[in-house]
Amino acid sequence: MSATNSFHQAPNPLPRGFFQRDSRELAVRLLGKVIRHYHQGHWLSARIIETEAYLREEKGSHASLGLTQSRRALFMAAGTLYMYYARGGDSLNISAEGEGDGVLIKSGYPVVDDISGPDSLALMQQLNPAANGQPRPAARLCNGQTLLCRSLHLKVPIWNAQVPDPQQLVIDDDGYRPQQIIQTTRLGIPLGRDEHLPYRFVDSAYAPYCTRNPLGRTRQEGQDYHLLDDVPD
User: Fold this and answer.
1) DSSP structural state of residue 118
2) Residues in Cβ contact with 57 at an 8 Å cutoff, skipping those fewer than 6 apart
3) Could you identify which of 4, 5, 111, 176 might form a hypothetical disulfide with 38, taking C-beta atoms 3.0 to 4.6 angstroms apart as the criterion?
4) How many CB atoms lie within 10 A of CB 68?
5) Angular region, 79: left φ>0, alpha ψ -120 to 50, beta rest
6) Residues 59/191, Cβ–Cβ less than 8 Å
7) Torsion-angle region of residue 101: left (phi > 0), alpha (psi -120 to 50) or beta?
8) Strands (E), 7-136
């Protein structure tokens, strides 16, 4: 892990009890929270803008395949990090209430604030350059589960089956709340594995910057997605 950081902790890291909820509720409540990882002397930070919920009993869940050493985090206490490789890149999940249930952190958006300044953003761009080697635009740094982990330097061997550490990795509540949330079906679920379940959630304000914009021109409200205006605090 990185050297000890200059902060005792981020301003308001989520308590472990926050994660003790149904994965679908947790997926909604995680939207807007900030993941902060201390690396090379900087807090690398991204706001969570897209999540997917998974239940053990449905076929799209890793836990439905059974308990293994690599999947053990999903069967551990709520708030445990579950990391795995997706298409060769690292992917971040968090266990929820209910053995085997969890939330995939699908996309984020870089945060520049008093904790994570311009130098932090520059380091994120260095860690996750564009295909041509040039700095990737900030809006595209974290729009996908593997891009998010690459930009935050989150690695499976280090963080799988671990819990957030206030000196190294926190999920922070900085007071931001989504005004509207989009609910739709998850991405990449094979046919016959409960691909119809509407367990993907997106902060409407950041819809253009998530993995795939659920508000595409051919998509219709009420048919392809639903808008949730009663957003929990």
Assistant:
1) H
2) 64
3) 5
4) 11
5) left
6) no
7) beta
8) 34-39, 42-54, 81-86, 89-95, 102-110
Q: Give CA–CA dist 137/139, Å, rounded.
A: 5
Tokens 């902790």 appear where?
9
Amino acid at 30: L
Poorest-pLDDT segment among 10-19, 111-120, 197-206: 10-19
Q: Distance (Å, rounded) from C-alpha 61 to C-alpha 71? A: 11
Spatial contact of 1 and 158, defined as CB atoms under 8 Å apart: yes
Residue type, 46: A
Chain segment 156-210, per-residue pLDDT in tens: 999 999 999 989 999 999 999 999 999 999 998 889 888 999 999 999 999 999 9
Report helix, strand or coil for 216: coil
**DSSP 8-state secondary structure symbol assigned to residue 38:** E
How is residue 89 written in tokens?
């890149």
